[in-house]
Amino acid sequence: MGVKKRSLWGILLLALMFVLAACGGGGSKSTGGGSDSAGNESGSSGDGGLKDTYTVASDTSFVPFEFKEKGEYVGFDIDLINAIADEVGFEIKLETTNFDGIIPGLQTGSFDIAIAGITITDERKKTVDFSDPYYDAGLRIGVAVDNDDINSIEDLKGKTVATRLGSTSADYIKENIEGAKASQFEQLDQAYLAVENGSADAILYDSPNVAYYIQTKGKDSLKMVGELYQAEQYGIAFAKGQDELVSKVNEALSTLKENGKYDEIYEKWFGEKPE
C-alpha cells in the first residue's frame, strides 16, 4: 500500500512538472514571436532604401509639358517622369495642383517629387532640392497680332503684363521692367485671354509655353516679339532629405539622354530634337 501511494505521488509530481514546463515554454515562444515581429518592422522602416511609390506633383495646365487630354494628363514632363520611374524602378502617384502650390506642398511633405517646368533658382534651392537640369528655357513676349507698339522688353515699360502666379517671370517683371504691372493668374489660359481681350498689353512667360500656345490656340490672335530673355533651366524638384532618390533620378536622366529615349520624348512634344 505504501508503495502504491509513493508511485501515485510520483506520477502526479511528474504530471505537474510536465504542465509547468509546457506553460513556461509557451510563454517563451510568445515573447520570442513578439521580438521577431518588432524586429521585422524596424528593419523594414529603417533600411534607408528607395520607396516603391512616390507622390509626384505636376501643374494643372502647362502645355506642352503637362495638360489634360481626353481625361488624362499628358505632356513632355509626364512622359519624362514616367521614363525616369521605369529606369529607377518605382511607381508614381500623380497629383496635380496650381503651380504656386507645388513648392509649399513639397515643404509640407504632401508631395515627394515635382515636375512642372520648375525653374532652378538659388532662392528655391533653400527650400527644395533639384535634379540636374532637364530643359533649357527662357522668357518670351506675346502680344496681339495687330500690336505694332511692343517689339522688345523695353517697350513693356509702364504696361500691364500678364504672367503666371508665383513664376520667375512675375519676379522678372517686378525687378526689371520699370513701371510695369505684373498681372498674375493661377491658370495660364487666363493670362493669354487677358492679352486677347485687351485687359493686358502683353504676356511674358516661359518660351516653350508661349511658342506652343501661339502655334496652336492663339495662332490667329497672338504673335511672339523680341528675343529670348533670361536664360533658365528646368529641374525636377524634391522634398529635402532624399539624397539617394535625387542621385538615382540624375543617373536615370543621364541614361535616358545617352540611350536616345530623352530625344525621342523631346521630339514627340516639340517637333525637333534638342540642340
TrEMBL record:
Residues 53-272 form the Ionotropic glutamate receptor C-terminal domain. SUPFAM superfamilies: Periplasmic binding protein-like II. Its main location: other. One of its GO terms (molecular function) is ligand-gated monoatomic ion channel activity. Residues 1-21 form the signal peptide. Belongs to the bacterial solute-binding protein 3 family. Residues 53-273 form the Solute-binding protein family 3/N-terminal domain. Keywords: Lipoprotein, Palmitate, Signal. The keyword tRNA processing does not apply. InterPro entries: Iontro_rcpt_C, PBP2_GlnH, SBP_3_CS, Solute-binding_3/MltF_N. One of its GO terms (cellular component) is cell envelope. Residues 29-50 are annotated as: Disordered. The keyword Membrane does not apply. It is found in: Cell envelope. This is Glutamine ABC transporter substrate-binding protein.
